């Protein structure tokens, strides 16, 4: 299976023509003249050059005591850093222009004229270091491939097992599963249904589903070219990159995903055997389809702009109701469903915001996510609308008497949501500036879920110590 | 054993950046700004596998030069130097072999140890090979001005 869109290798740095190269060179206080001497060693010397972009030349006084070679390519380089004591340096940039030298005669004796022919450079203000690194992963692969051939044994980049496991599975994102499942269990407990063994098994089984999904997502995004096309991944977006970095093979990832799904299936079967709930079977089957179909053909929801809906359904109602029905042996009610809706919207917004920095690479790979399809204004408006809806549903659920009053604790996350909303506009085109915003957005979901849980903890505790206190409006 | 004149050693020890020039397969010079690390005898530079084209060039042609030209990167000193030498790539263990130079590197770029602790975030950056330069000849401009002929010293003899 090949990529669904043209995703040829991207240049490591933007193409630089001679005029641009000379223009950049002119911004440096001096340039470094370099040529290869007759012994075969490079010689470098700092000179003050006069750049003439119109004629594509530079001129400078011939350095004393050195014989500049003519008839071969020489180069002029500008290089800059800004020292930062106690840290190192920043503002890295450099440019090299190659060309030929001619030595002046008569009135121009002692001057060298350099005629430029090509240029190359990097400026971290134009291509951030992390993007430059991503664009260079092909060079790293080439290096390790050559080293492997040289040694006659595979040589690969490495990470310690713990870091590799963390990166490969994207373990910290398990909060997206734990929050709704535990909330479902808590709601069932409030209603008088709780069994510790099956509760633990449910959390573990659901976690395996998400781990399977996380790894499968990398497998199918790699197969379809989306992860390769993304040169601005962040810790929140762009996948785990372990395949792109050569840390884990595609086959190993496919195997790992299968193992996670099988483990989830086994636990699901045990829960079915223990609780005998057809509802759980339905939730499990639908959950598996949504999970694998998120990126896998033929469904590949996220490629069709349906990723948010798939995530909302999977990490909202399905996870929460799954946790709930295991405890209630299949009995359903409106309370867990209504509670799942704000959680669903907020988790979908994690994906939604995380897709913003990925949108250029996603577009190249034919992954038509919502930020790929819609304008900046529409995407930011969409965030605000969905976040408001999440809180409105929460309040409405409490007012309608479906959710307990302490569930309103989750409203405490509104300032965080506002922070995300305000941060999207100025950082929309800056993947690395958006990282902090994405981090806060993850917290909106996590904290809202934890506060909902805290609300139910209050209900459970008060139910035990003061059963006469009514925490539901209208009951 | 020191093979370079003292002022050049001081420049190497002070420099936050130097310009490594290698010769590519077509004979063209290619210049890369890198942090020079000096142990009193040889000059070391490290290169991530991400930016390893220079290593390919060195394997094809070990003749290199390292120049120290930027007064800003050497604490305001105005003298300049270029050291020509023979380079070899040390790549037995790209994952951790380079870390023996971390103490020298940290002196110039203290933040590197913090980045290294978070190597999970940028694993390929910390897959690195070493470039070891044995100096052969050094050019030194005491006033940093190319209008003055450099003082040339033959480091190769001292190293022999």
Helix percent band of chain B: 10-25%
Residue windows where pLDDT falls under 50 for at least 5 positions of chain A: 1-7
Radius of gyration of chain A: 29 Å
- Structural category of chain B: alpha+beta
**What order do the helices and strands of chain A follow?**
HEEEEEEEHHHHHHHHHHHHHH
Oligomer: heterodimer
Distance between the amino and carboxyl termini of chain B: 10 Å
Can you tell me the overall shape of chain B? globular
**Rounded to an integer, what's the Rg of chain B over CA atoms?**
16 Å
- Compute the number of strand runs of chain A: 7
- Major sheet size, sense and barrel closure of chain B: 8 strands, antiparallel
Count of runs of 4 or more consecutive helical residues of chain A? 15
Number of strands of chain B: 8
Sketch the topology of chain B as an H/E string, one letter per element.
Answer: HEEEEHEEHHEEH
Uncertain ranges of chain B? none
- If strands are numbered along the chain, what order do they take across the biggest sheet of chain A? 2-1-5-6-7-4-3
Number of helices of chain B: 5
> Largest interface, counted with CB-CB under 8 A?
A-B, 60 and 60 residues
Brief overview:
The complex is a heterodimer of chains A (475) and B (160). Chain A is of the alpha+beta class.
What layout of secondary structure does this protein have?
The complex is a heterodimer of chains A (475) and B (160).
Chain A: H1 18-25, E1 31-36, E2 42-47, E3 49-52, E4 57-61, E5 74-84, E6 88-103, E7 111-123, H2 129-135, H3 137-151, H4 161-169, H5 175-190, H6 196-223, H7 226-229, H8 250-275, H9 278-293, H10 307-328, H11 334-364, H12 370-373, H13 376-399, H14 414-427, H15 434-465
Antiparallel strand pairs in A: 1-2, 1-5, 3-4, 4-7, 5-6, 6-7
Chain B: H1 6-14, E1 18-23, E2 29-34, E3 37-38, E4 43-48, H2 53-60, E5 63-68, E6 80-90, H3 102-108, H4 111-117, E7 128-141, E8 151-153, H5 155-159
Antiparallel strand pairs in B: 1-2, 1-5, 3-4, 4-7, 5-6, 6-7, 7-8
